[in-house]
Amino acid sequence: MKIIETAIPGPVIIEPRVFGDARGFFMETWNAAQFADQGLDLDFVQDNHSRSQKGVLRGLHFQKPGAQGKLVRVARGAVFDVAVDLRRSSEHFGQWIGVELSQQNKRMLWVPEGFAHGFLTLEDDTDFLYKCTALYAPENEYTLAWDDPAVGIDWPETAGEPIVSDKDAKGLALGKVPAFP
């Protein structure tokens, strides 16, 4: 696999080795030893799968306490995936990175603890998969506003306004969310 650094230290793009032939393709999406060799010694405790129509925006979520690291990928469709640095000690606090993840490019993104995470679906029937390093704890979940001008995420255009849940529509501004050390 190939590890690609992002503009913010912590999140990395992962390009797995893909073996294809007339039958289709094969790729490893998780191999503890290979990831550890790349400096990603991770223990996952929960896997999640969501399906969304085009234009659905989920996030920007994080937990505190009980922060989750997330290894995310798309099995079908495409998303614009975003991580926002919420580490106050980071020179990149409040900054974001975004990457397209799709069934075509087969890329994965590692989003470490200390980041808010979200995505916008770019195609109908997008299947989004992610492995988490901590269990989901709704009582510890926060939502950073997806459209906070202080963060200034440049979301791709979709037809109309993004479709968001009631919870995500009530996301907090960067100055109001609890940050990480």
Strand fraction equals 35-45%
* Span between termini: 31 Å
Unreliable spans are none
Strand elements, count: 13
Spatially, the strands of the biggest sheet line up as 1-2-10-7-12-5
Q: How many strands, what sense, and barrel or not for the largest sheet?
A: 6 strands, antiparallel
User: How helix-rich are the residues, as a percent range?
Assistant: under 10%
> What spatial form do the alpha-carbon principal axes imply?
globular
Q: Would you tell me the structural class of the helices and strands?
A: mainly beta
Summarize this structure briefly.
With 181 residues, the protein is mainly β.
Helix/strand layout:
Elements: E1 2-5, E2 12-15, E3 18-21, E4 24-27, H1 32-37, E5 46-52, E6 57-63, E7 70-76, E8 78-85, E9 96-102, E10 108-111, E11 115-121, E12 126-132, E13 141-143, H2 166-169
Antiparallel strand pairs: 1-2, 2-10, 3-4, 5-12, 6-11, 6-13, 7-10, 7-12, 8-9, 8-11
Keywords:
single chain, mainly beta, 6-stranded antiparallel sheet, 5-stranded antiparallel sheet, 2 helices, globular
